[in-house]
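User: quick one, sequence for these tokens?
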């Protein structure tokens, strides 16, 4: 910047003013609001600003140009682990978020979340959309630092148009397309808390399948020429309808992001709001991704690399591209440094993430050497500066070879040996820290009603099966015989009398049949009092035939009986005492326990 300083004016003052004008602020005059958008199954290349002309994303492009983009930013290969790392600043095995369903997605209760930290600092906190780090309280978002939650806790959802959702633990009916609905509630939260610091977490469940999107967005892309195509191996074929649906869903996200940013402008709080946008893993189909190897579910570049956009007007420079190696574990320490919120050292729960605030705030800030680890199903990849060591012990220089073509493990033996040793140590320490076989919790003092959904249970027997292969959003169906057993590993947190309810559908031939729910020495027996069924729904708006998401239906809640558990932990089982005549059957969506008041 040029200053017209008279010769008689102190040189010191001129130099000081230039330095002050050129240096961005590091802390706002008041604590900044924090707004985080997280998309589901969107790839590194699913943006206009990434050079993909298939996508029209003006709001996300503007967000990227008005702030910083971390281009060498890494998440996990699947949903729940990324969310756990973002929320805690720690590798997901440390918090036992090792899977995506049947309880493996839960984040250990001794983990401190970003929402916990911000709430303690006086922030209003709200989460809107897909949680996917635990359903039963205290794994529920309301127990993990979020005052407000609207959305669903599962990993998949079977219907994106006015589906059943929840609001702070209470069942509600969604209104309209889910991404629009989540955005509406996020905007309402921002408007309610515009005069105090807030943390608003908007977790879109799109473009995750099922591939559903409103007509307006589908009509824009269904005949659009697609110039950018998947560049992988011949066997990795792009499915064009899925690509078009993903484009439409991302463009809907873009519109919703624009709505929230417009709200910040209208409330005149945009300049004091840090806005973050990133994806939870690689694309859910083979489509253009700059030729990077892999997609969702892999630890290769295409499976875990995503841009991190971060904007803070007047603080973070515009059009700033950050090449520092970074990851989801860095978001919590970075945001806390930007918001001037200290993170106390905790030897029992040390952060794995490192603040990259300096690199974000200043283009001249030097990069630092560091390592990042990603894993899925025991396959570990390590990135160190520009190098990648993949699970098959191939070594790549990602700066020169981002598509992983040239294995350097033989030509650079010292680098290979060093990184292989680090992977071994990480496996023996971090990977082994995950807890296994955690029970589902019932009877928390803050939430006396606990639901055990089918997604968390196990079914065995000659007839019983899930409504689809993916447990999320599924229900147990075809229950006919006394050998068909549903089970959940549970722990009762406090003594008392619990009423037991089933959420079911049943045929006429099932009416009057007895079934029981048992736990340790306790059991309750009841009868199916009435037939109930409802049509399957969810596929009406599918743009692509679904492959792994269950359809949805309504279920009736019926009280089966009650018991007072004599033990804290054990196996809770549901089974028929009398068989149901074929072709009739019983279907179970959940068992519900209600701690009754004295």
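Assistant:
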């Amino acid at each position: 910047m040029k200053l017209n300083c008279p010769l008689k004016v102190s040189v010191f003052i001129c130099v000081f003013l230039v330095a002050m004008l050129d240096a961005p602020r590091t802390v706002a005059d008041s604590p900044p609001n924090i707004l985080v958008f997280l998309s589901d199954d969107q790839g590194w290349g699913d943006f206009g600003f990434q050079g993909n002309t298939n996508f029209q994303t003006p709001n996300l492009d503007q967000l990227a140009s008005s702030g910083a983009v971390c281009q060498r930013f890494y998440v996990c290969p699947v949903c729940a682990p990324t969310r756990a790392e973002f929320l805690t600043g720690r590798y997901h095995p440390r918090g036992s978020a090792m899977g995506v369903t049947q309880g493996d997605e839960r984040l250990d209760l001794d983990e401190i979340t970003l929402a916990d930290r911000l709430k303690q600092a006086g922030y209003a906190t709200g989460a809107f959309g897909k949680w996917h780090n635990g359903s039963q309280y205290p794994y529920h978002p309301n127990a993990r630092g979020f005052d407000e939650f609207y959305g669903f806790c599962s990993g998949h959802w079977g219907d994106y148009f006015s589906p059943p959702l929840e609001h702070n633990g209470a069942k509600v009916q969604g209104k309209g397309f889910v991404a629009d609905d989540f955005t509406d509630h996020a905007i309402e939260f921002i408007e309610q808390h515009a005069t105090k610091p807030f943390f608003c977490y908007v977790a879109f469940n799109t473009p995750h399948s099922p591939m559903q999107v409103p007509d307006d967005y589908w009509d824009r892309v269904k005949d659009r020429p697609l110039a950018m195509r998947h560049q992988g191996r011949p066997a990795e074929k792009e499915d064009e309808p899925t690509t078009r649906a993903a484009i439409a869903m991302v463009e809907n996200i873009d519109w919703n992001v624009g709505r929230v940013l417009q709200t910040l402008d209208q409330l005149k709080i945009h300049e004091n709001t840090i806005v973050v946008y990133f994806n939870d893993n690689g694309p859910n189909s083979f489509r253009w991704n700059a030729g990077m190897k892999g997609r969702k579910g892999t630890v290769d570049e295409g499976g875990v690399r995503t841009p991190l956009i971060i904007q803070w007007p007047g603080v973070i420079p515009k059009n700033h591209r950050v090449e520092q190696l970074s990851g989801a574990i860095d978001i919590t320490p970075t945001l806390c440094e930007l918001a001037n919120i200290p993170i106390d050292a905790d030897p029992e729960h040390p952060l794995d993430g490192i603040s990259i605030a300096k690199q974000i705030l200043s283009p001249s800030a030097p990069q630092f050497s560091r390592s990042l680890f990603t894993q899925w199903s025991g396959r570990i990849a390590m990135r160190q500066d520009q190098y990648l060591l993949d699970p098959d012990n191939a070594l790549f220089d990602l700066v020169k070879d981002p598509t992983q073509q040239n294995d350097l493990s033989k030509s650079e033996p010292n680098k290979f040996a060093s990184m292989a040793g680090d992977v071994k140590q990480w496996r023996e320490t971090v990977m082994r820290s995950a807890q296994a076989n955690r029970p589902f919790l019932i009877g928390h003092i803050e939430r006396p009603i606990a639901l055990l959904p089918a997604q968390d249970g196990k079914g065995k027997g000659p007839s019983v099966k899930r409504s689809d292969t993916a447990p999320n959003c599924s229900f147990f169906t075809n229950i006919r015989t006394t050998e068909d057993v549903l089970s959940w590993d549970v722990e009762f947190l406090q003594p008392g009398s619990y009423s037991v309810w089933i959420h079911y559908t049943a045929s006429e031939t099932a009416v009057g049949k007895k079934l029981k729910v048992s736990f340790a020495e306790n059991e309750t027996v009841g009868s199916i009092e009435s037939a109930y069924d409802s049509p399957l729904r969810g596929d009406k708006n599918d743009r692509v035939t679904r492959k792994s998401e269950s359809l949805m239906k309504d279920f009736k809640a019926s009280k089966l009986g009650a018991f007072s558990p004599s033990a804290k932990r054990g196996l809770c089982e549901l089974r028929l005492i009398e068989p149901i005549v074929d072709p009739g059957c019983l279907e179970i969506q959940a068992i519900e326990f209600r701690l009754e008041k004295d």
